[in-house]
Amino acid sequence: MEEVNVTSGFILLGFSDLHYNHGAFFSTLLVIYTLTWMANLLLLSSIKLSSQLHTPMYFFLGNLSAVDISFSSVTVPKLLSFILYGRASISFLGCFLQMFSFLFLGTTESLLLAVMAFDRYLAICNPLRYMLLMNDKVMVMLAIICWVAGCLHSLLHTYILSQLTYCEDRLIPHFFCDMTPLIKLSCSSTTLAELLIYTEGSTVVIIPFIFILISYVLIGWAIVRMKTSSSRSKAFSSCSSHLMVICLFYGTDISIYFRPPSDYSSQYDRIVSMAYTIITPMLNPFIYSLRNQDVRQALKKVIMQCFSHRLP
Questions:
Q1: pLDDT-based confidence at residue 84 (cuts at 50, 70, 90)
Q2: What mean pLDDT value characterizes the chain?
Q3: How is 170-236 classified by DSSP, letter by letter?
Q4: In this predicted structure, what is the pLDDT of residue 53?
Q5: Is residue 4 situated within a structural domain?
Q6: How many Å apart are CA 209 and CA 113, to the nearest integer?
């Protein structure tokens, strides 16, 4: 069989094998992508301009918004072209650059969610020592660790998959270059690549997830022991948005990457992938904005400043 080389590349099928209303799907996707940018940029601006949001929790939230903007931009523009043209070619280097970016940002988000859980644990369980333990130096160091670890994880998997042999069948039944479709497309041994996914790959997802669970068990125990209902309500409200984002992210992520290869379904993967690559990045800023009074007040302030500058 003919091998795929750097010049031949791949063809991403997107949703060309499914029947759907192209116009409605394109319009909906464009609206979601626009809302993702606008909502996350507005949240970032509020965190930057409002002094009351200059705290560790909102610093990490700002990092999360930056990840969400980038995450959706890795897949959505290409998907929009799929809808218009049915299928889209992507170069060998372009495919692995897209996969690197996707893995990098997804892993960084997973680690950021764990760091945010740790931040909530310190704030609720050690309130008197919170600012001492989560000072500016620690805060920045934790964010850097998330980004660097995400980059190293992505480099490892991208390099291993780029060394596989890809044969004449260049059709990828997905709307972006993901690991599982590429492994299925390879005509060489994929044992090492699959082993890495289920060992190192699971480590960077499962360990942060377990860390989050432990943090929230301790937080829940601390909330239960609080003497007043107002204190319990305030502590829970500061965690509820984060818990909703965690459920959205890990629920879809685990359902795709942690199941037997025999259960692989390209249609299922494409639909679920849309949830965490397109829907979740749009919902995250709304979840934090609608359920957090400080963020709502900061957003109103930023919007009023924008309108006041436009008025003569």
A1: confident
A2: 84
A3: -EESSSS--HHHHHHHBSS--HHHHHHIIIIIHHHHHHHHHHHHHHHHHHHHHHHT-SSHHHHHHHH
A4: 83
A5: no
A6: 9
The pLDDT tens digits for 257-282 are 666 555 556 677 777 788 888 888 99
Residue 119 sits in a domain whose CATH number is 1.20.1070.10
pLDDT tens digits, 96-140: 999 999 999 999 999 999 999 999 999 998 988 999 999 999 999
In Å, the largest CA–CA distance within the chain is 71
Element (H, E) at 166: none
Encode pLDDT of 191-214 as tens digits.
888 888 878 877 888 899 899 999
- Amino acid identity at 26: F
Q: Is residue 187 part of a domain?
A: yes
Long-range contacts (CB closer than 8 Å, 24 or more residues apart) made by 68-71: 68/36, 68/40, 68/109, 68/280, 68/281, 68/282, 68/284, 68/285, 69/36, 69/37, 69/40, 69/41, 69/281, 70/101, 70/105, 71/102, 71/105, 71/106, 71/109, 71/277, 71/281
* Total residue length of the chain: 312
Does 2 fall in a domain?
no
Read off the tokens for 147. 């980004």
Domain count, the chain: 1
In this structure, is residue 165 part of a structural domain? yes
Question: For position 5, what pLDDT does the model report?
Answer: 46
In the 8-state DSSP scheme, what is residue 4?
Answer: P
| 98/181 Cα distance (integer angstroms) | 14
Overall pTM > 0.85 = yes
Q: Which helix (H) or strand (E) holds 20?
A: none
Full domain range(s) for residue 218: 10-310
| Amino acid, res. 260 | P
3-class DSSP assignment, residue 103: helix
